[in-house]
Amino acid sequence: KVFNVDHTSEEECIHSTSNIENNVKYSKSNLSSQLYHSSVSQEEIFMNWNDLRSHVVGLSNPGKNLCYINAVLQCLADTPPFINWLFQQGELSNNGKFCIICELKNIINSLYVSATEVVSDEKQQFVASAGVISKYVPILSPAFKIGEQEDSSLFITSLLDHCASYLSSYSATGSTVPISQTVIDTIFGIKLLSTIECSSCLKLFTKEEFFYMLSVEINNINSLSEALIHFTDQEILTGENAYHCSSCENLVTARKGLTIHTLSDILIINFKRSITLNNRTAKLSHKLNFNELLDCSSYMTFQQFDSNKENMENNISDDNIYKLYAVICHHGDSIEQGHYWSYIRTLNDKWFLVDDAHYRDVPLVEVLDNPSAFILFYGKVSYKNKRHDTVYEQRALTSLSTPQRKRHQSLSISDCPLVLNQSSNSIQPSNSQQEQNCTETSTISASKNS
Q: Which superfamily is assigned to 2-449 in CATH?
């Protein structure tokens, strides 16, 4: 991440995140007065699936190309740590300025409050609206235009990045230490490790990259597991593609690789269905196989670089096993056109297809067999209440030997039950939006480039 000082206006709505130390240098003379929501610490964020809504509420789409927004919001409303944090954010008087966090809370809160009422006839059920967000999509990304269909994968990453930018670069507790990691990073963050190893001097060059979504290529690929293997396969740089080693000061043959260095409790995977052929964009529409359970151990950094078998076995745990809880699907010839809808898993492992204002319950097999799957949402099957300084802990590369991919036996659902309700704290939507007193604090905001 690269942090830059941003002098934001006093009217902008800034939310506070956890109190984490950071070595970013700052000057008090550069601080400007901002408004804050209450601070939320890592210990107060819980992965409690038992508090998910048991019934579904649709989102309207009155011919305004809102389906890509609606599908994303339904999936985020099914993401426990995100809504747990979101519902703790108080309403803020932001002087008429657009605040994505406030709007998300209002919309998702309406989905939860209305879902508590059992209505047998779908036509009689309340339908919420994401129309407010649709009016401000150009703020999320300059590529977005009001009233036009957009790529839902780009919308997710833009939305999360914008949420992170609305979080204070300081905690609301009065600390003068800037924050390096927001709560959005903690919930959704994926850290990739790019490596190049010189075959001559054996020096290893590394670079870390941070994302909210894992985008995998699927051209000539038929399953998620194949896509992840391709994603982490190593490439030999030789001949015209030889690598210039700064240590050897010469062009050398080198081995280039990419691994998943750290994962958060939520893992979002995007199938890259758009490809460019003869200067034209086309969509890959073939079916991709994926399972309800996903073991990411084989694609992690420790698995690729640690030749110690005992260490590899010890590192294979529930920390790397994820369970599917939502899917976004797309029908059409282009990602920027057509139609988006979602599948979401509610309380008691019950699945629903949610298509704008309409919905119906479906079996899991329909979710897994749908050929239009575009974005997958996975949650960790076991959640440990980790502190910020250990969520992204660095793993030492103990060996530079040729990576050996270890194969594991497939796991059944009964082998990996969800153990996510480690706290009695529950997600509590509010029936009314009550304004809270805001604290004025001097601050700078951090903008991240990845």
A: Cysteine proteinases (3.90.70.10)
